Amino acid sequence: MNKKLTPEEIKKIILFARDEGKNPNFSGANLSELDLSYILQDIDLEKADLFEANLYRTNLSGLNLRGANLAGANLREANLSGANLNESVLIKADLSSAVMVEADLRKAILIKATLNKANLLGANLSESYLSEADLSEAALVEAVVRESILIKANLKRANLVGAYLNESYLRGVDLSEAVLVEAVLSESDLREANLSGANLNGTNLRETNLSWANLSEARLNRADLSEANLNWADLSGADLRGANLTDTIMPGGWQDVAAHF
């Protein structure tokens, strides 16, 4: 195990790198359980190399990590609330149980990252890349995930109440048993998605492509499915009472779903 760096060593590495016109290199460094938010009050980590760094339970709240390389980093239970992670690289990073309230993750690359049980309340993940990421049981209440790519991402049992996922590519995503009450998924691609047992009450699914999706036992009370494509979707046991089905393409026709009203 790497020796944990001291606050003085961390500052020295950053300042020396900046003086040399380079980005700070903390690749593989042990920065676990440090309060970097306090230590680096007037110093930022923009474009820092933190590849496979140990940041377990580290406080990074409010820090500027724009464009930083955090691929493979251990960020379990870390505090990244309010941090600027715009355009950062977090491929295969472990962010399980991390606190990321209102973090800026626009255009971040989180492919195959682990965010199981992470708190992303109000976080901004617009135009981010989350394909094959594990967001199971994560809290994404009122998070903004517009125009993002989440191919085959795992969002099982995630809390997405009031979240914005419109115009996103979610093909093959697992949203089984997820809570998407009042969420916005309009104009998104949810082909082959698993939404079995999901709560979609009041959800905006206008013009969404749900062909071949699994919506068995899903709750869609008052959901807006106008102009959505449900061709070949599985609606067995789904509750569509009060749903807006104006110009919706239904699997097998109107008669097959009449019993669900």
Describe the protein's architecture and organization:
Helix content is 7%, strand content 0%. The relative contact order is 0.07. The model has no long low-confidence stretch (mean pLDDT 95). The chain has 261 residues and is mostly loops.
Quick tags:
single chain, 261 residues, little secondary structure
Mean pLDDT: 95
Number of continuous helical runs: 2
Q: What's the SSE pattern? A: HH
- The Rg value, from CA coordinates, equals 21 Å
Topology summary:
Elements: H1 7-19, H2 36-39
Overview in brief:
With 261 residues, the protein is mostly loops. It is built from two helices and no strands.
